[in-house]
């Protein structure tokens, strides 16, 4: 396995993704947390130093901890990582007067194990640069293996120690050969085996769950989404009927979703499942609530109450299973709050484990979202579930601006179903991050047949995104949009006008509330 030391780059997680794609397990540690004990405990085959926003030429800038170079394993420094490595090993770095941002070209000057089978001396190759500073004097033992117009030390190597530095970012798509370079580092230089696959993960995770749980009983909240579904099936494989699933149905799901969850888990997988239909309770609590944050809080609090009541009814559970993912547990580098670190934690049923004296089982803690999907496929979950678009916890409640009623929910379910049906038929579902309809609190005049209508308007939304943090609207062709609008108005009584939302994020958000 490999260790990635994070200096706060926006794309550190991409380094981890590329290394794992090479079949090598890796974890990310913020630079502040590195010390001899941590490195010894993790026992990495190699270490990668990420980029970061700081400048090593400033006094207080984060430095690569000496423990990294004492570990006697190969090290690859990327961008800021190259600079801090060079400085710590006795070289020097200067603020560049010629900044390089975006596409650049490197010229390969010498062969190195890092480029083996990918780049030859004399090649000119496209890379992605994003730096102001640059290395100006090499530490002893290093030589230049590639240059760029503004970075005479665009890539440096000390083959004997297995130390490499690149000024460019091999982890991003705009460095087309970057993944191969990272693979060379992980497999050939660091000597990792490359046998980290989902099949292997499945075996290991099952063994770990068995060891943790013993003869205990586990409660798992099922939502119908990818993460909780994968957790449930994995746990069932590990501990059989010591697992009890609870599906809190808040009535804010899409058309037929509740029945699908019950059918799949109870009927197909034979997993003990309580279907708590609490839609009436939720509707009552939401009556007259229009403020988006108040909706979220109402739903969140009620969800916990219902879940707790069901768990108590079942009784005797020692563990609560959660679909926490790796991005939720990575400690993030914080420059604003000094050396302190922020730990993001995902609590779907926050506070419950402590309240009910349960321990957490989180078998997906090490995985990225697309790895969870791969694990779902490995476990034989249906493709349409594994590839399902993200769906917010508060469900359709935040897709109906204004107050929520049963009638509005039913109408939105119909509109949404028609829209998604057309997207699937057009073969576009997997190209889109998220697609959904919003029922607007607006009435407009229309004409149907010979009659006047005065009905609601709806908005359609579809975005592309890689992580939900930024998004672009999906460029449907006009014929497609016309077809969807036509079907919605003909099939969904109560809607007589359809609009398409072309806002990107930022400045918009994906959801309307
Ligand atoms: P926004 O609307 O913030 O959405 O651009 C980003 C992603 O988060 C989802 N989302 C939520 N998920 N509870 C959730 O579990 C929420 O309250 C919530 N609000 C937004 C949204 O669907 C998108 O995937």
Q: What topology emerges from the helices and strands here?
A:
Elements: E1 2-6, H1 12-21, E2 26-30, H2 36-42, E3 46-49, H3 66-70, E4 75-78, H4 80-88, E5 92-108, E6 124-137, E7 143-148, E8 155-158, E9 163-166, H5 178-189, H6 198-213, E10 218-221, H7 226-239, E11 243-249, H8 257-268, E12 273-277, H9 279-286, H10 292-314, E13 319-321, H11 326-329, E14 331-332, E15 342-343, H12 352-355, E16 359-361, H13 369-378, H14 383-386, H15 406-425, E17 434-448, E18 451-464, E19 472-473, H16 478-491, E20 495-500
Parallel strand pairs: 1-2, 1-3, 3-4, 4-9, 10-11, 10-13, 11-12, 13-16, 18-20
Antiparallel strand pairs: 5-6, 5-7, 7-8, 8-9, 14-15, 17-18, 18-19
Xanthosine-5'-monophosphate binds at residues 296, 390, 392-394, 434, 468, 505, 509-511.
Binding site for ATP: 223-229
Keywords: ATP-binding, Glutamine amidotransferase, GMP biosynthesis, Ligase, Nucleotide-binding, Purine biosynthesis
InterPro entries: GATASE, GMP_synth_C, GMP_synth_GATase, GMP_synthase, GMPS_ATP_PPase_dom, NAD/GMP_synthase
